[in-house]
Amino acid sequence: MLLAELEIYHSRTNAPTRRVALGYTYLPLKNGTGQGAVLLSGIIARFMPEIDQDFHDDYKKLLYQLQRGERISQPRLRHRFQEDIIGLARTVHQLQNHEGNYRFIFELNEAAAEQNILAAAYTISQFAYRDRPAIVNLMNKASKWRGEVGTDFISYLLSRHDRFLADLGHESSENWALQVLEITKANPDSDKVKSQFRKLLRSAHPDTGESSERTDVAKRIEDLTEARRILLR
Question: Residue 211 — very low, low, confident or very high, per pLDDT cuts 50/70/90?
Fold first, then answer.
């Protein structure tokens, strides 16, 4: 069963100009998140590792400009966004429910990673302003994911949105929490969770750990705290 879909039109790899446009979109939302936002975030997680690191800051800036409804200068990520789709190739990405399991279907053809990233980002302008902050937050979180874009990714993405996990057929985000706390066995007891949390928290702290990046430290502590909450609830 189809849950969400994004149709992208883009220039081919041998084209003299780099362009991207949006086609049909089916991106249902619920209270600012939902299956549409999950698909967009999945596209970001799938293709972000393939783009140049120098583009990451421009991607984040673009998201916030779209969230605020600002005029977008062109090109972005070396591609020009347009409405005309004549002469462009077509790519479709979907989120599906297959026999009770939720899975992403990414069409991998001539579309460059930057074109997929830009198309997902530009859909933000189609949503109501009240919904945009939640979508942008999820897409930014997705940009940090490294790994297969599947069930564990959805649990990671929605770890603070248990209601929407239930909507998507996931009872919890325990797999993500176990991964964050580096616990290999399922159903750990509370003592194991607490001791592992304290151990990793000490190593993450800027006064005792190796990291000197405040933003990375804050994100690490936030994830550890959320993982502890999930496993102790």
Answer: very low
Burial label, 103 (beta-carbon count in 10 A; 0-12, 13-18, 19+): middle
Residues contacting 14, CB < 8 A, separation 6+: none
Question: At a CB cut-off of 8 Å and minimum separation 6, what does 100 contact?
Answer: 169
Cα Rg, the chain, nearest whole Å: 19
Output the CA angle 36-148-192, nearest 5 degrees.
Answer: 105
How many whole angstroms separate alpha carbon 85 and alpha carbon 19? 9
Domains belonging to the chain, first-starting first, are 2-161 (no CATH), 172-233 (1.10.287)
Taking the alpha carbons at both ends of the chain, their separation in whole angstroms is 32
Strand, helix or coil for residue 118: helix
Question: What is the rounded average pLDDT for all residues in the chain?
Answer: 85
Q: Positive or negative, the Cα torsion across 162, 168, 169, 175? A: negative
Ramachandran assignment for 169, one of left (phi > 0), alpha (psi -120 to 50 degrees), beta (any other): left
